[in-house]
Fold:
Amino acid sequence: MGRADNPAPHVMELVAMSGSQVTLYSIDNQLAQELTYAERIIWKKRAYELGLPMHFDQQIERVERRGNKLLAYFRNLATGMTSEKAADQVIVEHGTKPADRLYHSLRHVASNAGVTDLDALLAVKEQPLTLNLQGAFELHRVGDAVASRNVHSAILDAMRLCRAL
Structure:
């Protein structure tokens, strides 16, 4: 199992299968929260099969070197309590950079300068902004051009933009 929309559980599995001890900490309240229910269950089952301890609602605060180990500090988002974990290695999955090079190369010639009115988008209303009347098209970012998002997010944003026309 390995896809672009689930890097943390995939790395978790690969590192555990290499023979290293793995402990998963997540800021979310469950494993792979951004995935569909069916995908989350597959990863959750795999983590249990590998015997991996999992800690949720944990925000990493900092990592410091202590001798030949790394000491990671966490804060529980629900209780505010802090904890620490000594490790040889700390792997942080923090999403991906937007794939927005094409968007930025077209912004200056778009009628809306690439600006999306988010209130109108969420209300499925026509985009009100027209800054450059000479522009031949409107330009909006969806999916991975915005952030690390799955295809369903891109389809939903595109549907909202097109449906409002």
